[in-house]
């Protein structure tokens, strides 16, 4: 199959030669729930790579499968889901791993930050306990873990760490609590950080601070980061490379600098045109016609064709393979009509 060969041969647009062990490698991942006639496909042929120390964006509309994809790296599949393909974190085969191995993986190698810090932190436990539990589970003695918690809070810009460890989550603002969650996520020095819309619940100033902090911490630890967002401008600012998802599939992959200047997929271009920006000279915001589709309800052939201004009869025949166009890998039959 062309897509697989192309992906295997080619160097990542912005991610270097890929000769190091990757932090995350998802290859040709398909996911479905239910069986037989009632099977509902959720993801199809998703391939995503995150190198060590690299920041990789996963963007797309609501329901495109971003969170599902990110969660597979933790071995968190929907109940009753069947997966085919590969998911490897460092050298761990996640889809084949047993419960113990997955628990170990989550404790030591992968951390996840969710959109809403209040939903991911136990409201009746003190911040100090929240921060030390991961360290204690790794065998760090209590006193050293407590010192490390203070140090981490200091690093993420919490004033008075000594007071903060005795406080409860509701005593922090959303932005401050997200800093605490970042400190927790990085306390175990993971190889992979999954950030699923980590700043969507925050105001823009706090968002910029939290993103800056994430990048700084990630650089300091050499952590690979999968940054999930629906905000293209944010992805451009934060990421080295970006994958664009639509209806459970990756439709484009590119270095973020070229993706935003020269999109190759009509969906990427439509997303850019629909994204309000305070920069540049864009004046018109154009909504994408129709509504986002889940994989199960998408048309035959290219899933985007019923919303695509460039679609022709041949787009209905098969799902387009990924092929190079400019600096992108794109699943479209006519990318030259998007950006020549
Ligand atoms: N446990 C599940 N069982 C069945 N379908 C699911 C399950 N979890 C998610 N889905 C479906 O899979 C699709 C992708 O969901 P996902 O949460 O990955 O979207 P997303 O891209 O993260 O969207 P958002 O931007 O809204 O967070 C959706 O259509 C959703 O309804
Ligand atoms: Mg999501």
TrEMBL record:
Species for this entry: Planobispora rosea
Coiled coil start-end: none
Family according to the record: Belongs to the ABC transporter superfamily.
SMART domains according to UniProt: AAA
GO cellular component term of the entry, any: plasma membrane
Keyword Cell membrane: yes
Keyword entries, A-Z: ATP-binding, Cell membrane, Membrane, Nucleotide-binding, Transport
Signal sequence annotation: none
GO molecular function terms attached to this record: ATP binding; ATP hydrolysis activity
CDD domains (UniProt xref): ABC_NikE_OppD_transporters
This protein's name: ABC transporter ATP-binding protein
A single GO BP: peptide transport
Higher taxonomy: Bacteria, Bacillati, Actinomycetota, Actinomycetes, Streptosporangiales
Compartments it resides in: Cell membrane
Keyword Cell membrane: yes
Membrane topology listed for this record: Peripheral membrane protein
All residue ranges annotated as the ABC transporter domain in the record: 24-272
